[in-house]
Amino acid sequence: MEKQLEKILRRVQKPGRYSGGEWNSICKDWKSIDVKMAFAFPDVYEVGMSHLGLQILYSMVNSRDDALMERVFAPWPDMEQQMRNNGLPLFSLESRRPLRDFNIIGFTLQYELSFTNIVNMLDLGGIPLHSAERMEGDYPLVVAGGPCAFNPEPIAEFIDVFAIGEGEELLTDLLDAYLASRRGGESRQDMLLRLAGIEGIYIPALYRVEYNSLGTINTVTPLSQGVPARVQKRAVTNVDAAVFPTRMVVPAIEAVHDRAMLEVQRGCTRGCRFCQAGIIYRPVREKEPDTLLHQASNLLGSTGWEEISLTSLSTSDFSQVTPLVHELINKHGSAGVNVSLPSLRVDAFSVDLAKEVQQVRRSSLTFAPEAGTQRLRDVINKGVTEDDLMAAVEAAFMAGWHSIKLYFMIGLPTETDEDLQGIANLARKVLERGRRLVRAKGRLKVTVSVSSFVPKSHTVFQWEPQNSIAELKRKQALLRELLRNRGLVFKWHDPEGSFLEAVLSRGDRRLAGAIEAAWRNGARFDGWSEFFDLSKWTRAFASSGIAPEWYAYKQYSYEDTLPWDHISTGVSKNFLVREHRRSLEGAITPDCRDGRCQGCGLCVTLEAKPYFAGGETVASLSNTVL
Amino acid sequence: MREVKLLPRYRIQYCKRGPASYISHLDLVRTLDRAFRRAALPIAYSEGFNPHPRFSFAAPLPVGVEGLAEVLDVEMQEPIAHQELAERLNAALPPGLAVLEVSDVQDNTPAPMAELDEAGYIVHLDEHDLPGPLPDGAARDFLSEEHIEVTRKGKDGREKIRDIRPGIVKLDVLSQVSGLTMQMKLKSGSAMNVRPEDVVEAFFHHAGMAVDKADLQIIRTGLF
């Protein structure tokens, strides 16, 4: 295989994607290990190597004496072609063994548009595509986790085991149970039944789904005793004490995010009503600054990275962010290490932070007001006012930035053309302010980047339809017209990709055939505009008798059983209903960080509680109030 | 006038093999910078807002070509013993990269790219990739040509014709047992740079045959 692989590597772009041998990668003695797991990232190396979850689980599993984890990424189309032409199976980077040789393949589901890559990787790995075909023959156990596992139904036929929620403790339990099952000589069916008893494990083959005559779900019923009717997500109780890698694999070729990642907190309770991460990663759990400083020193020392990024869903909300940034710059700045902050909140405080970490104002600053009018921002519960935005951009221009990016979403529930006009008004106001404050007027630039709303499972807007492709195109054309101005740049995404994302994110089990057909039609890397081709999917939907519009455009009612209702984030459906009603009234709901519990129901369901560095907590409402 | 502080400069001879041979030159700069950081060996950086490590390389090694004795000059913030530099850096280098030797560089020594203008190569072609047996004296006949023209697409996409004969210093067929093994010495560096795969292609073309450049297994044996 080595000789053949070398021959192939001389014929593909960026062979470093497949050659392995990176610093801190771990290649264990295959024969002396009981359970061999492959972490499969269904996208290209540079994207997968930017993923913190991979680094955490890789280090965690490899620290066990009885287990190993190796990595495998989706081969770029040129590599896939070479592999197929030469009969080379998909292999792991560490030991270069075919996927088929592993006991467990763990896919991470970061975005719906990677589903065809999963099918493709199974196929290239010589593994039968469907869970049902793997019951006999000692095939690897195919596991999937990550945000998209919260609606696992569209890919349920391809996956044996879904891991719902945070992986640190769940994967440990899963590996232990797997080993116990193997030692006991259990059949595959018995192993699945055993795994189904672990909290957070969902095994689709152990449920029967029945539909109503109108196509919605009637019931989802467990088929055996000991299989939970509703699968509760896992959340780490103490994030501060949770495993965090002191060594991370340093990519051999430049990754999208090629820097040390330090997770400062998990969860976000701002409560934006379109946001899925804000629901599934609840509650907010901060790490202690001392822990973080210690982890930062270890990471920088073991990797040599020249940049450290403070990651989380909203880093400016981390209560200790200012002292942490100061301390990191004090300790590591002289060694030329930069600190970077993704996802800045829209306010002057955040600009001050950005000022501290960025000595040179070379890049632009990005803010996400998400909607153009206060009315619509209240509907989506984006707690940002025009004053906040103006204060933020003013601070940015005064500090020397001359390029500002504004992110908006179009197609949000209740949106009218007035809200689009609002986007243009805001952009112009920002530009005006820049004209007054920026000295190098020629370099002043305000970029308006617009994405299309995709209703996601488990969110307040899960019941809402998506705008049609035609309507989204009309809105984009209108915005293009409204934003015609010197100094304004308008960017948008093709609505076709957002449409498919909506179909898959609210889909059910009946979509499996269409996903497979799209893959057979050649769909790969659907998240990449250079490869995405809706016509491959349109043909696939037609040949498998699926009306995709039904999935994207359906307005669900509160009484409907949703395809993902048997998966629980810990947030109660009552809370989502109440929030949805409040949203239509334009009523805002504050963050529980401020000390007042909003009754999402999570703290009474899960052991994990909100935690703020220094020990503060939020007292949750009792069950009766809900 | 800014005061120019002379920092200690060392020449590092290293190999780049196995998985490391797939690291591109740009990524190699990053890889080495991080290795020095892991080894806590403070190197000098350029001034300005976007400091980069003060490395000076010989002609970059193409992706997929192994290097047995590559050359890098590095400026350090403080003097360090050769042995210590080699040992600490080796402990921080990924598989395939290794320091072979460290030496001092005099202040007036030109950069490796200018000083080292020849490179040695061994090229191997597997038996089943060979288009046919080479006629006797093929190498001598090839080298007796006054001009050897090759076409290559320039950065602007237009094809350029270039005479590479002046860049071929030596070319020998070492073995025709189980494939073909050749040894070459070619001009490399800032003045003239000839690629081994171009030479082999032209060599076969001269003998009336065609080879697939991607079949060539190339090792750069050293820089002179």
TrEMBL record, chain A:
Entry-linked Pfam families: Radical_SAM, Radical_SAM_N2
Alphabetical list of InterPro entries matching this protein: CHP03960_rSAM (IPR023862), Elp3/MiaA/NifB-like_rSAM (IPR006638), Radical_SAM_N2 (IPR045784), rSAM (IPR007197), rSAM_horseshoe (IPR023404), rSAM_sf (IPR058240)
Sequence ranges assigned to domain Radical SAM core in this UniProt record: 254-489
GO molecular function, a single term: iron-sulfur cluster binding
Coiled coil: none
Designated name of the protein: Radical SAM superfamily protein
Species this chain originates from: Sporotomaculum syntrophicum
UniProtKB/TrEMBL annotation, chain B:
Pfam families for this protein: DUF2344 (PF10105)
InterPro entries xrefs: DUF2344 (IPR018768)
Organism of origin: Sporotomaculum syntrophicum
Domain of life according to the entry: Bacteria
DUF2344 domain location: 9-196
Protein name, per record: DUF2344 domain-containing protein
